Amino acid sequence: MPQLSSGGGDDLGANDEMIAFKDEGEQEEKIQENAFTERDLADLKSSLVNESEINQNPSSAVVRRGQHGEQRGFPDKHRQHLDGVSKQQDGGMYKSSAYPGYPFLMLPDPYLPNSSVSPTSNKVSVVQQSHGMHPLSSILPYGNDHFSSSPPHLPTDMSQKSGVHRHQSQDLSGYYPLPPGGVGQISPSMSWFPHSLMLGPSGMHPTGIPHPAIVPPTGKQEHEQYERGMYMKQHVEVKREKEPKKPVIKKPLNAFMLYMKEMRAKVIAECTLKESAAINQILGRRWHALTREEQAKYYELARKERQLHMQLYPTWSARDNYEAGLSGEKSKADWGKKKRRKREKQQDSNTDPGSPKKCRARFGLNQQTDWCGPCR
DNA sequence: CGGCCTTTGAAGATT
DNA sequence: AATCTTCAAAGGCCG
């Protein structure tokens, strides 16, 4: 659980997160400067908990996970300023500045192949966008100024202060195919689902509902092939004929993953890097350099991601994908092997603290300056 | 061609 | 309860 070890007692960042940057004066200053916003964020998180508790359908399976997750994230102690701050946030982040009406605003078809992240477009969809094509991706048309002002074409209901959570299941029903027994019966508008995902078992949720987060459970290569060809009906059909395997529902993206997804293209453009490992290091640093408010936006997005995911797949568990690796050619023995490998690696890394150095060497970065100029 | 690298955070598993 | 492990994304690299 993210917890700040610094004086603020904030719970946003992970312990190691603060440790890692403790020796960075710049970061330290930032933390102090942002003492207030840190508290704000904590309050925000607390408010999110309350929102979830209030808005969740108590009879649905959704409640179980939502409360669990948020409570872990937002301890009670941070609820103190809830009333005041949450109002402010309603009027601020939730209402005007941040993705109002999110996540159920429909924008350009997110499932077009060309809708992927582009450094030049300045419009970056955040969620499961490039290939998973999560529904939320279509609703987050933000780039540099993501979470900026409210689109004028918002449905009245969407732009109202009560905001993002009110009547969510109803809102959802207009855009998302919810499983029977979930949060309600739906007659989804499928127009923005790619045809390939509407075709048959390989793209179908176990409930029979297609969803872009559902991918074939096979290996990475095949997965990528599938993605590349997902708009080619024939290709998909052939695949389905060959191996109609049980689809895998991917995990919802967390805040940092959403941030990465949005910023990756920028970093690639700025730093002319392509290797994800290097890019992710940069993004990790930038993530820490974000203000609490900026991070809060992504936490909020991630929270909605999870909420949506829960509503779409009430019975889904992260454990499903633990086992998904076994569903293909892999055996349980392989799974154990992988587990062991990871464990061994971690032990190795414990005795080898110089991994960042290694990485710099590996990616040809300057060992002295740590990071290339713009890539901080 | 499968797996690694690298990041943070969520969630399940284990101790 | 605390700690550990896995998985989300990404794409180049390596054996």
Task: Name a few traits of the molecule.
single chain; 376 residues; mainly alpha; two-stranded antiparallel ribbon; 2 strands; 1% strand; globular; DNA-binding
What's the domain count?
Answer: 1
CA distance, first residue to last residue: 26 Å
Mean pLDDT across every amino acid position: 49
Number of strands: 2
- The biggest beta sheet, please? 2 strands, antiparallel
Whole-angstrom Rg: 21 Å
How are the strands of the biggest sheet laid out side by side?
Answer: 1-2
Helical percentage: 40-55%
Give an overview in words:
- With 376 residues, the protein is mostly helical.
- The protein has one domain.
- The protein has helices at 15-20, 25-33, 35-55, 62-73, 82-91, 93-97, 156-159, 168-175, 220-228, 233-242, 255-271, 276-289, 292-312, 318-327, 332-351, 355-362; strands at residues 214-215, 248-249.
- The protein has a two-stranded antiparallel ribbon with strand order 1-2.
- It is globular, with a radius of gyration of 21 Å.
- Mean pLDDT is 49; it is low at 1-212, 217-241, 325-341 and 346-374.
- The chain binds a DNA duplex (15 and 15 nucleotides) through residues 1-2, 13-14, 17, 65, 68-69, 72-73, 128, 130-132, 219-221, 250-257, 259-261, 264, 274-285, 287-288, 299, 302, 306, 317-319, 321-322, 324-325, 338-339, 341-343, 345-346, 355, 359, 362.
Blueprint (SSEs and pairs):
Elements: H1 15-20, H2 25-33, H3 35-55, H4 62-73, H5 82-91, H6 93-97, H7 156-159, H8 168-175, E1 214-215, H9 220-228, H10 233-242, E2 248-249, H11 255-271, H12 276-289, H13 292-312, H14 318-327, H15 332-351, H16 355-362
Antiparallel strand pairs: 1-2
Helix pairs in contact: 2-3, 3-4, 3-5, 3-13, 4-13, 11-12, 11-13
The structure holds a DNA duplex (15 and 15 nucleotides).
Biased composition (Polar residues): 47-60, 146-162
Domain HMG box: 249-317
Keywords: Activator, DNA-binding, Nucleus, Repressor, Transcription, Transcription regulation, Wnt signaling pathway
